[in-house]
Amino acid sequence: MSVRIHPTAIIEEGVQIGQGAAVWDHVHIRRHATVGCECIIGEKTHIAYEVRIGNRVKINAFVYLCTGVTIEDGVMIGAGTVFTNDRFPRATTPDLLKLRPSAPDENTRLTLVREGATIGAGCTIGCDLTIGRFAMVGMGSVVTRSVPDFHLVMGNPAHSAGCVCRCGQVLFRFPGEPKEANRDSTCSACQRQYTIRAGAVFERASA
User: What percent of the chain has pLDDT over 90?
Assistant: First the structure.
């Protein structure tokens, strides 16, 4: 499978793009970033230095992925989502006499988005955190702490409102604190089965 790159896209040196990927108009991928196979990179998205993107990832338009971000396989990132990588950002040194460099340094914090997760449109993702496997972040949310596997989070700051199946359907909405949730649940759409213990979600083997 060939790689499709729109003629207006800017691809810097050292970038690796896997087979079957499509990079749309006015995308900018900075040096030494990696994009896996069969990915879609939507228009006007910016991918910074050394970002790592897995296979079959769908990134919609106007997304900003900063240095320090790793995206695993099968992730979807909605349009207009912004990632961050510095908890205490400043433009200059404290004396205001020198610009701080944009290159990664000791203040750069990491963010990991695990396989199968979905991030809705217009989200802001903090740094030094992990978004778990098959988790779902509701549109417009501001994520300031790690999200457990299979959790549905929403709001500003984002909080756990329930849990979701691999297929994306809501399994169960938490009536109170997630840690108080203890039950078994079967997806009404695909019949996959899960166990929820103290708010943690575990897949159960199919019969």
Answer: 88
